[in-house]
């Protein structure tokens, strides 16, 4: 079992989700975050106060998957999120010790298998 | 000159001016948060560039004597526009009142091209559009031009403002092309309360637009005021029912749209029809705009904020229904189809078709002309980042985190006087 954590551009989120659903990855969590990935900062001015915005809006996805789903998940994110410009984001794959599904108390692989699909 | 007329027209002018920032709120709420400021700015800048352009050349082309097609330059730079009476109000006030119409008409077009048009290209376009399209069409109807002589009824600008802007919006949406996310991913309104606020302020301002078009504090102004209250109310009722009948819920964005459609439809009719006719007119006008809107989203036509459905279709229906419901016993000018003058409908249709055709063709020409000088569309990456940051260097909802202050170079004056001395004090 792995936890796939990805940071992507907000405008690429739809493309990433589309590819994830096509790869039958159905359970995921997203959050709006701010980060810096080496891209050129943009400059904003408010009534003569000029600021460099070091942080850009990003979206973080967290997806718990069983081992044979790691590769399709990562591929979906790589292809959906890539624009080729600096600031496209990162994908991290982390080991997971234990997973529980709250509703049923199922554990591990069964806990990350969608309802109706045999584990 | 009449004091009551002057007082009312001063207020009415301010009311119509308020409609342009109100339109900014109406439109601004309907776009994504990354494009909120850009969308609102498209309305706000019209107050500047169209307002100044109106004084320099727009007013004279619309209201200068001229010929049947366009005014002359006798009032360019506001020459001969003084405190003398124009009707029962000072000429300068008449000019200012008409200027507020030019401003909002140009701003209306922006709804068709939001979230993708470069700001400088938009500015150039609306400045030219006001001179080349708005002023002549205003002259045709109000400046003693050919439609006026033909007897076309347009009380407050259904044809001049709404059909005109609607046709321009249709062509602008086609020339610019759809947003890159259009029909690929969901593009949702980011602040529906803004849209409702905008609709409310538009209705408030519209009392100046319609009742002010009587150009005095008189009985016709009272009639136009009442019909402006009644028609959108009827549109709102019918629209809500259509929403419910389609198996959906009554929606807030739908209600805001209905108010605007009703206001658009009653604009040409305001001082010409009875209040009960206005209710019928408003109710009928809901239907074509509603279905135009439902149909449009299934096409590749990215008229992003439905200017065509609301202003084009609504304006056309209102103009034609004016020819149906006009009643001489109320307005003292002309009867419509229902009151024994079927020919009026034909006149109304000619006016609508002429304005739409002229506006559509010239809009394409102007956009192609602007495109020769500068690109019309923002870079694809700028569109993805959002027009607020890419066009204006601002965000509507800046969090402020990670913002590093860029300190300006010290002014030489401060650098010498504020230099700390060896003793620790300042020189």
> What is the H-and-E element order of chain A?
EHEEEEHEH
Share in helix of chain A: 10-25%
Report the end-to-end length of chain A measured between terminal Cα atoms: 13 Å
Rg of chain B (CA only): 23 Å
Average pLDDT score of chain B: 94
* Uncertain parts of chain A: none
**N-end to C-end Cα span of chain B:** 65 Å
Q: Which range does the strand content of chain B fall in? A: under 5%
Strand content of chain A: 25-35%
Describe the structure.
The complex is a heterodimer of chains A (119) and B (427). Chain A is α+β, with helices and mostly antiparallel strands and 119 residues long. Chain A is built from 3 helices and 6 strands. Chain A has a 4-stranded antiparallel β-sheet, with helices on one face. In chain A, strands 3-4 form a two-stranded antiparallel ribbon. In chain A, strand 3 and strand 4 form a beta hairpin. In chain A, helix 1 packs antiparallel against helix 2. Chain A starts with a strand and ends in an 8-residue tail after the last helix. Chain B is mainly alpha-helical and 427 residues long. Helix content of chain B is 65%, strand content 2%. Chain B contains 16 helices and 3 strands. A two-stranded antiparallel sheet of chain B has the order 1-2. In chain B, strand 1 and strand 2 form a beta hairpin. In chain B, helix 3 packs parallel to helix 6, helix 8 crosses helix 10 and helix 11 runs antiparallel to helix 13. The termini of chain B are far apart. The chains are: A alpha+beta (119), B mainly alpha (427). At the A-B interface, strand 3 and strand 4 of A face helix 14 and strand 3 of B. Strand 4 of chain A pairs antiparallel with strand 3 of chain B.
């Amino acid at each position: 079992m792995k936890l796939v954590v990805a940071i992507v551009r907000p405008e690429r989120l739809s493309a990433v989700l589309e590819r994830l659903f096509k790869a039958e990855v159905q359970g995921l969590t997203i959050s709006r975050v701010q980060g810096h990935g080496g891209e050129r900062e943009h400059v904003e001015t408010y009534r003569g106060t000029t600021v460099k915005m070091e942080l850009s809006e990003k979206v973080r996805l967290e997806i718990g998957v069983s081992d044979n789903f790691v590769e399709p998940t990562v591929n979906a994110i790589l292809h959906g999120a890539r624009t080729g410009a600096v600031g496209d984001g990162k994908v991290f794959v982390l080991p997971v010790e234990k997973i529980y599904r709250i509703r049923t108390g199922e554990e591990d692989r069964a806990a990350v298998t969608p309802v109706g699909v045999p584990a | 000159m009449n004091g009551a007329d002057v007082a009312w027209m001063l207020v009415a002018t301010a009311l119509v001016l308020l409609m342009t920032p109100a339109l900014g709120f109406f439109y601004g709420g309907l776009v994504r948060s990354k494009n909120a400021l850009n969308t609102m700015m498209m309305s706000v800048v019209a107050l500047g560039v169209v307002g100044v352009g109106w004084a320099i050349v727009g007013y004279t082309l619309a209201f200068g004597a001229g010929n049947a097609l366009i005014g002359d330059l006798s009032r360019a730079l506001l020459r001969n526009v003084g405190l003398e009476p124009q009707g029962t109000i000072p000429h300068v006030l008449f000019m200012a009142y008409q200027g507020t119409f030019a401003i909002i008409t140009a701003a209306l077009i922006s709804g068709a091209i939001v979230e993708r048009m470069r700001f400088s290209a938009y500015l150039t376009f609306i400045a030219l559009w006001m001179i080349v399209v708005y002023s002549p069409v205003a002259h045709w109807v109000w400046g003693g031009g050919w439609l006026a002589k033909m007897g076309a009824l347009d009380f407050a600008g259904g044809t001049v403002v709404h059909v005109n802007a609607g046709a321009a919006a249709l062509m602008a949406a086609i020339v610019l092309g759809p947003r890159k996310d259009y029909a690929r991913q969901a593009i949702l309104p980011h602040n529906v309360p803004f849209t409702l606020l905008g609709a409310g302020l538009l209705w408030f301002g519209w009392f100046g637009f319609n009742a002010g078009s009587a150009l005095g504090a008189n009985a016709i102004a009272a009639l136009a005021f009442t019909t402006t209250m009644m028609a959108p109310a009827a549109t709102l009722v019918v629209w809500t029912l259509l929403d419910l009948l389609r198996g959906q819920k009554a929606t807030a964005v739908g209600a805001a749209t209905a108010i605007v459609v009703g206001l658009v439809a009653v604009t040409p009719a305001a001082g010409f029809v009875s209040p009960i006719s206005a209710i019928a007119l408003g109710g009928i006008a809901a239907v074509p705009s509603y279905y135009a809107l439902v149909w449009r989203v299934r096409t590749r036509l990215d008229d992003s904020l439905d200017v065509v459905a609301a202003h084009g279709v609504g304006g056309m229906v209102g103009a034609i229904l004016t020819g149906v419901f006009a009643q001489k016993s109320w307005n003292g000018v002309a009867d419509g189809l229902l009151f024994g003058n079927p020919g009026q409908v034909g006149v109304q249709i000619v006016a609508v078709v002429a304005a739409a055709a002229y506006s559509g063709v010239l809009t394409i020409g102007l956009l192609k002309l602007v495109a020769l000088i500068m690109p019309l569309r923002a870079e694809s990456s700028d569109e993805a980042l959002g027009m607020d940051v890419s066009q204006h260097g601002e965000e509507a909802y800046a969090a402020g985190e990670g913002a590093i202050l860029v300190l300006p170079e010290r002014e030489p004056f401060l650098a010498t006087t504020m230099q700390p001395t060896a003793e620790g004090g300042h020189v």
